[in-house]
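Model it.
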Amino acid sequence: MSKSRPYTVNGKKYFFSFDENSNLNGISRSAPRGAVKEGAPLDPNSKEFSTISESSEALNALNVNKFKGNKRGYQTAMQVASTEELNKVYDVKTKKVDNEDFVEEDNNDQNIATQNATPKSSGKSEVMSYPFDLNPRQDHFKIMKYNYIRPDINMSKGPDEERRLESYSKPSNSVRQNKTGFKNRIINRAGDSVIGSELKGSILLPMPKATDVNGAEWGKSELTISGIAALGAANMVAGRLANDDGQMVAEKEAREALNAERGRNVEGTAATEFARALGVQTISKLAGTAFGTQLDADTFLARTGGKVLNPNAEMLFQGPVIRDFAFSFIMIARSQKEGEKIRKIIRFLKLGMAPKFRSTTFLKSPDIFTLHYKNGLGENDYLKTVNQFNPGGLALTTMNVDYAPFGYWSAYRDSQPVSVKMDLNFTELRPLYESDQLETPEDSVGY
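Modeled.
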């Protein structure tokens, strides 16, 4: 296949390409960087392609390509390749141009894999992407892999402040000065926790279905009057009736005043009610033991008086919830190189989630990952319209790869499956706290 010099048609420059039979099989615009470089190809099914191919400049390009300087042989009609060949050449050129743009952006911005990398990196790490011509300046999903380290026995910490005795300077977004001459630097304990120093590689994938679920663990708690009395006694023994600012003393006095007011509208005072409840529990237990049966206080009260002990049920906070995320990607190999890249991505993730054998006694933790929804190559080019992920890292807990996602085997001559479905399940390594959410930009949705 041969290519012509640029020709100007209607004020724009175009390149024409021809097959071995001198049939026109492609037209490309001049690259924005100058007329000497071929740019994006024209869709052979477009009106622009039809107009340009019928121009006198296109015919001149064909004659120069076919007859060189022998103008006597110039023909008056254009020779155009078949529709199948036109579309094939267009697809090849489109992928080539997109891939060149991707590589150029990679070189201009040094290494897109090391962007957003808080830990140190010893140098360039490999960047893999699907599709092969994915444009990182569009919304995309980024996975970065690190080794796992444990600098502390407890890494479940929220953002904290580290005080440093330094001279005053102009405050920045990440530094807050106080009145003592110290600087308070915000430290995200999650981000400084178990992420190792070496970035092992990155994957760029199309934007998946983005969802996040935030939760807190709450559970039902029940205490009868005797349980509440026992809890109060334990509270007194623990010496927790007052703290430094006397807050619990004030709360205790307010509770006693409220209970005194309520006591006028109930069957009896708290002490009387407690004595009655304790008597019922004792009698029912003794009676059940004497006659060899199970008889609890609620059964006794319900059958004899149509009432039960008040369980004083409440929902009480029991702890945080660690979030997990599920992603699904369909990867279709459109070329042999793209098939190789798909296999490489799958292997990269499998290696990262596998535990490391050290001996018959010890195993070492698998690698961990950081996830980002991004649009661009910069450190802060994350999407504010969807959730962020815990910067302390996530564990890849399960990975399911379906090599025949449509129910039947379909592959190329090298046995590369035409399509592969990859399901990934990640779990954050520590819970999120209010302090984490406060550190996110106000115009974002937070974690």
